[in-house]
Design brief:
Helix content is about 30%, strand content about 15%. By secondary structure, the protein is of the alpha/beta class. It has a single domain, classed as 3-Layer(aba) Sandwich (Alkaline Phosphatase, subunit A), CATH 3.40.720. Helix 12 packs parallel to helix 13. The longest helix has 25 residues. The chain is globular. About 5% of the residues have low confidence.
């Protein structure tokens, strides 16, 4: 960027008046400048200047009494196949190998992977389903541990989205928009509600690689970014190798006392620049240096699992002690929830199963089934499930027709945004229910559709936030996570 233009971009009205001679001409010129073209400082939902609360949230939030204090989002990247896991469709046995009727497809657009197929044969699931719990929910034998806690879950079988390819679809779920550049849901909550722990970030992200499809879609740091919100609200990514957070350890030869004196002097220099320019990113830098210093103590304690009893590792499964696995991340998510982190997001890659789905999905379920169920059980026995909202699901579903060659024991499935399954549990959500229904082909929703914006509105509602009132003014417009859409799904609220 041209440094002169950058300087002009940072020039605030306060700075303008401070550097110019007084006079009516200067005042008139200042009034003509279009301040709406710049991202304004933080504003609360009523539009007044921001006065942060002690917890770091906006004044007046939550808007009403929340049922949940925090969120753990288990994002299954790549799109799990709903009809192989939760959406039991026995009539597919009768349809096996037949063509998907045009009356069912209804002209739906296809991806480039199957658009040139001459045939769209129906592929039933080869996995067995059974009803479980008092709720009688159907779960396939791929998910035996989830089946044991199904009465704690709300299964939403009528999710739908607008995107048909991975990156825009994942971006849509994280930010409410298919194009990159908007704040992620965790950043919105960090901005609006702040954190309950001053020594840890309000928003933490972790990524694990599944065994189903090791070459699955990449994930980008912007998925837990802050977009046009100040960058102090972006998620902090925890790593599985080396320091859990980059640059957590002091350089060799630098003591804690030296680091403290260095940060104090650096903060004074940054404060001078903040007073001169009024740039919120300088305030972010000051705050994040202090957070990093406190995390040098809090994060090692958090990630040290040596005091966890053996029965906890047994609960989460054989991978629980292996850093970077989904099981290990689920255990860390519980520890983060205990310590008051507001939004915890686990991304698990490997669900994009266009070919050899039976083999690949078996590996993915082995990765995720026991840890996901263990997290629910662990939270419940510690009294945390009542005020922790847990979400499990991907960015879209999979097609009922086969991609590639269909055989008696092998098939693949393409992307399907028109219907898929997601589950929720905990704070503010009814347990032991199923919401929504799809047709016999698991291709179209026939009852109670839930859009991505509806899901976001419902998540915010559980946290005591009116999704229409949590906004931020950027480039002349008040933006929100749900854009101009979204309805709270009241039928699933406890």
């Amino acid at each position: 960027m041209n440094p002169v233009n950058e300087y002009k971009w940072l020039l605030t009205r306060r700075h303008f008046f401070g550097l110019t001679s007084t006079g009516l001409g200067a005042a008139v010129l200042a009034s003509l400048l279009n301040e709406d073209l710049l991202a304004q400082d933080e504003v609360n939902p009523s539009g007044t200047s921001d006065q942060r609360t002690e917890a770091g949230g906006l004044p007046g939030l939550p808007h009403f009494a929340p049922k949940a204090k925090r969120v753990i989002y288990l994002f299954q990247s790549g799109a799990p196949s709903q009809m192989d896991l939760f959406d039991y469709k026995p009539k597919l046995n009768d349809f096996q190998g037949t063509e998907l009727p045009d009356s069912v497809r209804k002209g739906q657009r296809l991806t480039g992977m199957t658009a040139t197929q001459a045939s769209f044969p129906i592929a039933r699931s080869i996995f067995k389903f059974a009803q479980h719990g008092k709720s009688g929910a159907w779960v396939s034998d791929l998910m035996p541990h989830t089946a044991q806690i199904v009465d704690e879950l709300c299964l939403i079988k009528s999710m739908y989205t607008e995107a048909i390819n991975h990156d825009p679809a994942i971006t849509f779920f994280q930010t409410g928009a298919q194009l990159a550049g908007r704040p992620s849901i965790g950043a919105w909550l960090s901005y609006g509600l702040g954190s309950e722990n001053k020594d840890l970030p309000a928003f933490v992200a972790m990524v694990s690689q599944g065994t189903g499809n090791p070459n699955d879609q990449p994930l980008y740091d912007r998925l837990w970014g802050s977009g046009f919100l100040p960058t102090k609200y972006q998620g902090v990514k925890f790593r599985s190798v080396g320091d859990p957070v980059l640059f957590l350890s002091n350089p060799e030869g630098i003591s804690a006392g030296t680091r403290r004196r260095f940060l104090d002097d650096l903060a004074k220099l940054n404060q001078l620049k903040l007073e001169e320019f009024g740039d919120p990113e300088i305030a972010t830098r000051i705050a994040q240096y202090e957070m990093a210093y406190r995390m040098q103590t809090s994060v090692p304690e958090l990630t040290d699992l040596s005091r966890e009893p053996e029965h906890v590792f047994t609960l989460y499964g054989p991978d629980a002690k292996k850093p970077g696995t989904f099981a290990n991340n689920c255990l860390l998510a519980r520890r983060l929830a205990e310590r008051g982190v507001r939004f915890i997001q686990l991304f698990h890659r490997g669900w994009d199963q266009h070919t050899t789905l039976p083999k690949q999905i078996t590996g993915q379920c082995r990765d995720t089934d026991q840890p996901s169920a263990a997290l629910i059980s662990d939270l419940k026995q510690r009294g945390l499930l009542d005020d922790t909202l847990v979400i499990w699901g991907g960015e879209f579903g999979r097609t009922v027709y086969c991609q590639g060659k269909l055989t008696a024991d092998d098939y693949g499935r393409d992307h399907h945004p028109r219907c898929f399954t997601l589950w929720m549990a905990g704070g503010g959500i009814k347990s032991g229910i199923t919401h929504g229904e799809t047709d016999d082909y698991c291709y179209n929703i026939i009852r109670d559709p839930v859009h991505v914006h509806d899901l976001h509105a419902t998540i915010l509602h559980c946290l005591g936030v009116d999704h229409t009132r949590l906004t931020f003014k950027f480039q002349g417009r008040h933006h929100r996570l749900t854009d101009v859409h979204g309805e709270v799904v009241k039928k699933i609220l406890a």
